[in-house]
Amino acid sequence: MPGKRYFFGVSTQFFERQETQRKATRWLLFAFIAAILGVILAIDLVFILAFGANPLDTIRKEAGPLVWLSIIVGVVILLATWHKSSQLRTGGVAVARSLGGIQIGTGETDFARKRLLNIVEEMAIAARVRKPAVFVLPDEPGINAFAAGHSPDEAAVAVTQGALDHLDRDQLQAVIGHEFSHILNGDMQINMRLTAWIFGLFVVTDLALRMLRGRARGKGAAQLKMFALGVFIAGSVGMFAGRLLQAAVSRRREHLADASAVQFTRNPQALQSAFVIMAASIDGTQLEHPGSADVAHMFFAGSSPSWMNKLGNLFATHPPIEERVRALDQRVTPLRFRSLVNDERRKIAAKLQAASGEAAPAAAAPAAQPAAGAQFAPVPPAALVAVAAANMAPLEGNALSLALESEVPAPAAPMAAPALAPAHAETMPTGVRLVGGRSLPPDDLRGRLSQEQQASIAEFVAQAEESQGAVQGAFVAAMLAAEPAKWRPQLTKLAPTLGIELLKATQAQVARIGQLSAPARLPALFDLLSLLDGIDPAQRKRLRAIARAFAPTVSAGDMFRFSVTRILEARLAKAVAEPPPVPLVERADAVCLLYAALAQSRFAVGKRGQDAYRGGLMGMLQPQKWAPYPQLAVTPAQLDAAIAAARQIHPTGKKAFADGMVRVLAMGGKLTAPQVDLLRGVCALVDCAVPALPVDLAFEEDVPDSAQASAR
């Protein structure tokens, strides 16, 4: 569409919506704090009226008791909030267990739970965060889920048994993607605080109820009862105000999370169909646990008690499902939505009849019905269904597949499926790949390699995975010079640091890396990166020291070794707090330098390189912000400084930055290994996804590997 840019099929309006949601939420949090103060003032007023005092006289002459009452109420609320915060200090695990959740681990044998574990792991890799703890709420038939925790490192994701029973893989993945948005956008920390604050406000009404139920005697009993009733009313007002603000914060965040779920999965149909199933389900999204109301704002869909829903949308913690579907697809009118829900209810009724032995004749069986994930698509012909089922065959051996599951019956004579490239045959719905039993991030560039190159990568990775020494040796070998006359002296100097075992492993890996083509080297090492997480601290320290020692020796233009040394050091370094993000325009110089280096990787410093450089900046930065195209080769030190600056760019700006790199590459018409190595390295170090390249942009053949073999 004109005027919009798309990234993996997601409009940049999603990113703009994220900014709007965050700004609005800050004001809502201030309003929540004001509600707490309002409760204190309301209780002070009740105290004055209950004991027959004149409000103005009391404030002017006898303010002492009111001050003490305000302090006591404030302390009670703060103590209750602190107590609840202490209970939640262990993170999302405490919330999940408080609702009856059962944690599931890698030894799980139930298929549905194993599928959930695989989806969470897949999404964690795609989102580049640590895999959260995974819980199931086995006693909840409603379809719902939530993410909780103070930070991504202590997060927990929980889904109800109803979600496992009624959602297929794509739909469940969309729901989990929604929850990962809450993890990445900082919603969980806000939600945990809201939970503690609501508990603090609830304590006021709870104490008032205890006073009303007590057996007070004497002359002041009536006044005490009146005061307790007033406190209950005042506390209830505060409670309703808290629920109102809680709902407002949650509603705004849900639209943001829905957009992000589409961004993660690149499959809006899956999220839409999940909403349709929720609307059509007999159990809906309601939770039965009595404590669910206090954490209703954390859930994927509304789970408030029915009496609260009758009060109107002001107290609804989530937007109506129909509104959320329409936000994803404006073409879904109210009539269309009702039609989809009715169709789904008929399917549910048919399944119930079949389960009770009252199924319709075989001719009426839903053999031609689309899967739940295809609610908004035409029904595929039987031949296409057969081909799809056959294409999924390579994935049937693991629980990460089975996207079709039992939605369509197996054909009597499956049609022959077309051959798939190894990289695509092992690619799951979100693009995450399964390599050696490990889930790895999407790699669109891998499909541009030849079959022979892809096979060599698979062989190299399979061999290196056999031992930790081989994995470490592969990275050390990659940092050595290309010529034997130069890498042998380097290895001799490293021998005391490496030790005899790692030295032998490195020598073996030098020859194996040399057998890989230039475009295949960095992808092979990327597939081994996750295995470095399992090495002990001493080995991490040693390998990082080697990477730091090699980093200054990388020559200009050697983008393979530049990327290896920098990525390796970043991967092995301790996590540090990131500074606040800044707009892209504030890092214009860094963006210009990185685009220039990308253009130089193919065209050096000539006019064609300048044209490619300008093509990347066109439409992203104003011309007055463009730095002159450098007449000298960009040095590794300049790249280091530019990458450090670009890492601070806001995620919205990083998306535009990645799109610009695509334009630089597209100006050449063909890809070269140095260009792609720099692209991979920059995206990994800046922490942005590798952008989708035009389909016809392939690797240039017979390009000399002089840059990669540069001497140091």
What does this structure look like?
With 712 residues, this protein is mainly alpha-helical. The chain has three domains: 1-353 and 371-376, no CATH class; 434-572, no CATH class; 584-686. It has helices spanning 13-50, 55-61, 63-87, 92-98, 111-127, 161-166, 169-184, 187-213, 221-265, 268-280, 306-309, 321-328, 334-355, 382-391, 422-425, 451-464, 468-479, 484-515, 518-528, 537-550, 559-572, 588-603, 607-617, 636-646, 651-666, 673-686, and strands spanning 6-7, 10-11, 102-103, 133-137, 145-148, 156-160, 433-435, 438-440. Helix 7 (169-184) crosses helix 10, helix 22 (588-603) packs antiparallel against helix 23 and helix 25 (651-666) runs antiparallel to helix 26 (673-686).
Topology record:
Blueprint lengths: L5 E2 L2 E2 L1 H38 L4 H7 L1 H25 L4 H7 L3 E2 L7 H17 L5 E5 L7 E4 L7 E5 H6 L2 H16 L2 H27 L7 H45 L2 H13 L25 H4 L11 H8 L5 H22 L26 H10 L30 H4 L7 E3 L2 E3 L10 H14 L3 H12 L4 H32 L2 H11 L8 H14 L8 H14 L15 H16 L3 H11 L18 H11 L4 H16 L6 H14 L26
Parallel strand pairs: 4-6
Antiparallel strand pairs: 1-2, 3-4, 5-6, 7-8
